[in-house]
Amino acid sequence: MSRVTIDLVRQAMCRPLPGPAAQRKMAPWPPVPPLFPAHVYRDAGVLVLLYPQGEALCVALTRRCDHLAAHAGQISFPGGLREPEDASLAAAALREAHEELGLDTSALELLGPLTPVEIPVSAFRIHPWVAYAPARPTFRPDPAEVAELLEVPLDLLLDPATRATEVRVIRGHEAEVPYFLVYGHKVWGATAAVLGELGQMIEQQLG
Fold it and tell me: 14, 74, 123, 147: which has the fewest Cβ within 10 Å?
């Protein structure tokens, strides 16, 4: 039986967000110096999609195609820049999830936002929105953007054995990089920071 239920996540989402302090636990250290000034950062919405899979509550992650200009090959949430037709960053996240994964977003329950994360190497500021589908969605990934869909139980992300750290050189700077090891993939950077905050909120709710 899964420890993490959607009711527990709903309760966790009602608490104050732990914010950057939680994110930093899964962020490179020392921080990578930004390439861009703060005023050029572009706002993007990403969808942290939760849904049941058997007895587990899962989150949907994607491996980006290797030919993409930004963050090629990395593990990410579906999402992208806010467009003029998007009423909000939540709307942008839902639209992008539809485009990338073929999701019918009409039945999704938006549970609320997590803390935005700035990505210093690409000047994106991502705004995560947590959503819940009452049944596993029908996924139709766009092969032009999505190389692989990862359906990850939240219980797995809470397992300390899933977390590790390695030393990487990022833009000429050596840093200790925490990551989640999921199905042979290293989930790091902004995606890991978002999952780290959500994970801490769930752990606090579990007590």
Answer: 14
